[in-house]
Predict the 3D structure of the following.
Amino acid sequence: MGRILPPEMRSVRDLARKRMQLVRSRTSHMLAIEHITARHHGMRISSPEVLRLTAETIDQMGLPAEVALAMQANLAVVTTLCTQIGLLEKRLGDKVRPRPEYALLTTVPGIGQILATVILLETGSIERFASVGNFASYARCVDSCHTSNGKKKGEGNIRNGNRYLSWAFMEAANFAQRYCTDARRFYERKKAKTNPIVARKALAHRLARACFHILKENKPFDVTRCFT
């Protein structure tokens, strides 16, 4: 069920959502710069290279004047957004980092400072979830499916739950399967039986369950408990 947070907690959560909106906007402008470069030079530059661009380097790329102006406009927006995102992240860190649950969440593979902040703020009080299944469902990490006699008869509302938590756990799964051996082994086993998308969702489900127990028991991540 949805829950109205206290005003002081709600404002911090909304600030985290504003950061996500700005990051999406920054990504769209960075992609525009990458696409312009690909169209005119036949090569794509990486995101770190985009962030290192300046108005002077764009002038030296030999682009038509109008194209260079368009790219400089994109770059100006990216620079402004980077500044604002940095300010928001600093404020979020000041508000969330002192909480003991924050440090516990960062022990989970794939969950860093930003994802720990999003998970903590979007979850609210873990006591409002009666079971780990309720939390996983709220995070959209389980299928909404109606069955009868072992056959699928329909689906529930896939938009139920919290889309920000869903995003956070899918991002965590992407990083975990890259940098954690046990998570990658779990992902490969699932992928061999299904497909990469289902395997990644299964890994996100495992991480969501792990986070529930971490917040409920105030204990750090246990890799053997999660993937065995």
